[in-house]
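Re: your question about Pimeloyl-ACP methyl ester carboxylesterase

S., sorry for the slow reply, the queue was backed up all week. Below is exactly what I fed in.
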Amino acid sequence: MLVSERIGQFFVESDYGRDRLEYTEYGSGDAWVVLLHGQLMPRRMHQPLARALAAEGLHVVTLDLLGHGRSDRPADPLVYSMTDWAEQVVALLDHLGAPQAVVGGTSLGANVSLEVAVLAPDRVRGLIVEMPVLNNAVEAGILAFAPLMFAARFLPFTVTALRLLTRPVPRGFVPFWAGIALDTLDQRPGSVAAVVHGIFFGRVAPSSRQRRAIQAPALVVGHPADPIHPAADAAMLAGEMPRATFVRARSILEWRVAPERLNRAAAEFALGCWKSPRRARRVGG
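Result:
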């Protein structure tokens, strides 16, 4: 089934300036789903899933968070944090005129989705959380990304050289995931260092107490044999949230190379969120 696809942009204001964010819409209607990418990856990584969900009648939006993809990439670490990215998702919903959405993502996108549920619970119809980065991933995350931050800050020519090598490769002539890898390597030293710095020295995810208070239904997907995104973190998160369902992927690559089972689980979950009655907004006393 073919679905419409449209590229859009909007602007966010902060104490540090005005930045442009870019997104893609798939399909139409009022059953909104927002998908968020992994760290340093482009929103296009979720194109196959977005098309599959839109074919089921959902209105899907993929967003390049600040510092990623085709959105602006300032080199100031002060503009990058989980809270800032969550506020950008809420600003996207405001821009689209979407009262609520199922919000989901992979890795960084998973953690940002949790932040949105804490920051604006009345805007979250449900959560699709793949590969969250929580307690069991700290050491592996530091080992993986600290050298990248060091190289971007003190050996910037290494990041620039990769960009010069990968950018000329036509994305239409390589397999889809090879193109995503090339896009991920298309970085600028200043923004890479700033993004990783902002993650390392801010809070990585909501606290366990805050996660236990999330009332939105959630689909949590964990991967076996993934040191940066251990399945133990996903299982722990599913156990914390009162309305969560845990799904174990068959491999770290299942949703990328054989996505039918997990696409179906995500579609059924998102459609179920929109078929259930709208939660009443809590009013403080």
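The first helix runs from residue 47 to 55. The two ends are 48 Å apart (CA to CA).

Happy to talk it through on Thursday.
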